[in-house]
User: Fold this.
Amino acid sequence: MDEGREYGSASTDSDAAATVTCPVCRERGTSFYYRHGDIDLFDCGSCRTIFMDPMPTASAVETMYHDSYADTSTGYFTKVEKKMKRSRGRIRQLARYVSGGSFLDVGCNGGFMVEAAREHGFEACGVDLDAVSIDYARKHYPQNRFVHGTVESMPAEGSKYDLIYCSEVIEHVPDVQGFAAAVSSLLKPGGYFFITTPDISHWRRPRELTSWDAFNPPSHCIYFNPNSLKLLLEQHGLQVVSRRWAFKPGIKLTCRLG
Assistant:
């Protein structure tokens, strides 16, 4: 796809693409895809992942996600009951795979999914980079454990989980290999991982990227298709056991470790 060619020089773009490695399959057969302001995105010719290069730095990401919801006054925090209802429904669906045990929500926001898991009988924990969201979760759902930080920092604790949940998070992650490795190391053998993320290859995705509500660089720095997400997860021992149909341009996968 050549949607962004008008924004840059073809020769310059080709030269840049020749040095870029795909973060998913690690191949170098990339091509220039789109320029958004001063941000360049590339298309992997092998797995068709679309990604920023260079990726945001760790410090930039930390700054980006500090107080993401204006002191919990916007986003999910304006519709808590609706969010809790949806979370309870999703836990009931996931309980078909894991009926109980330990639960981790990666990118837990205000703790809604964590609380729904606790209500269902799980020992529940959430992790998020946004300190303000974590403070909200600790205040409103004190029976759960909440960690301020990244999932990559959690394996050092030594805890293992029966079920890990991650919704609309991985597209924000500059190092998806490290992210997937951390998730895999946190699962118990035979444990399950549920993940959602936007699907850039979906038939309902607007042709013009800037018209798509999931196109948001640098916040969203990587865009998967179902096959490339499956490829990433399989590299870390996570085997897809179910893919849910999505009317909106998204991917919903349930995976099992081992």
